[in-house]
Automatic annotation (TrEMBL):
The chain crosses the membrane at residues 21-42, 62-87, 99-122, 151-172, 193-214, 249-270. It is found in: Cell membrane. Its main location: membrane. Residues 64-268 form the ABC transmembrane type-1 domain. This is ABC-type spermidine/putrescine transport system, permease component I. It comes from the Bacteria. Pfam families: BPD_transp_1 (PF00528). GO terms for cellular component: plasma membrane. Belongs to the binding-protein-dependent transport system permease family. CysTW subfamily. It is a multi-pass membrane protein.
Length: 282
């Protein structure tokens, strides 16, 4: 039954069932976000004054590009590790697959702050990794790993790889093995089979996972704050500083509006790319 026939048959009943959720989204998501964005256009200095002030600040634009860089790298690394893990899980037999899925998503059973503190213990100046490198004679003095961009990316990848795995496992499971075997039997190399068969068929899961990881890392607060500190300020931590330390609510709303616009743009761009690669992906 097509969606058109469904709505014709169910009519008002369908609208009545979806009305509560629709009203909740409008009342608790769209209206607050709209009010925040609208507030940035009521500055007495001019309608675009907050945005001009933001982009004229070298520090704030640096924070914006740093956030985009961290989010992009986190997404790419999570995609690589997530795809490899999801492929292994999807090809595993029954009970083994269940155990692998539990192991893959185990980090989600602990809080974000707990996981960030775990990395503080590992990457600290006197942490486990530095002690190991010193004991092996690889370095002569402890490395400065905390409060660097690398530390933030490592923490974010650890945080979001399970989401990528969950997004991809179902998609990879539904790719018939016969298709891959047919590609090989027709003379395609493993690399060609991957690029021309497996990857295009996995696009729906890749897009969903990439959107989840990018938006999550782009708006993350606790992990960048704990592992990056003020040296690696990102948009979310800058927003918190403007709102709760400087009490600059217009500045904080401007940052929130910029984050919203960038997030929506990235989602639309990824959907467009998905349609170009695989018209059935969306």
């Amino acid at each position: 039954m097509t969606a058109r026939h469904f709505w014709r048959r169910n009519g008002a009943t369908g609208w009545a069932l979806t009305a509560p959720a629709t009203l909740a989204v409008i009342g608790f998501l769209i209206v607050p976000i709209g009010a925040v964005i609208a507030g940035t256009f009521m500055d007495p200095r001019g309608i675009f004054a907050p945005y001009i002030s933001y982009f004229n600040s070298g520090f704030r634009t640096t924070v914006l590009f740093r956030t985009l860089q961290i989010s992009a790298l986190t997404t790419i690394i999570s995609l690589i590790f997530g795809f490899m893990t999801a492929y292994v899980v999807s090809r595993a037999p029954g009970k083994v697959k269940s155990l692998l899925i539990v192991a893959a998503v185990f980090p989600l059973l602990t809080g974000v702050v707990v996981r960030a503190f775990a990395w503080l213990i590992i990457l600290g100046r006197n942490g486990i990794l530095n002690q190991t490198l010193l004991a092996l004679g690889i370095v002569n003095e402890p490395l400065e790993m905390l409060y660097t961009q690398g530390a933030v990316i490592v923490g974010m990848v650890y945080l979001f790889v399970p989401l990528m795995v969950l997004s991809l496992v179902g998609v990879l499971e539904n790719i018939p093995r016969d298709v891959l075997q047919a590609s090989s039997s027709l003379g395609a190399s493993p690399v060609a089979t991957f690029w021309q068969v497996l990857l295009p068929l996995a696009v729906p899961g890749l897009i969903v996972g990439a959107v989840l990881v990018f938006t999550g890392s782009f708006t993350a607060y606790a992990t960048p704050q704990l592992l990056g500190g003020e040296r690696q300020t990102v948009l979310a931590t800058l927003l918190q500083q403007r709102a709760m330390v400087s009490f600059d609510w217009v500045g904080a709303s401007t940052i929130a509006a910029i984050m919203t616009v960038i997030t929506i743009t990235i989602v639309l761009a990824m959907s467009h790319i998905a349609r170009r690669i695989n018209p059935m992906a969306t």
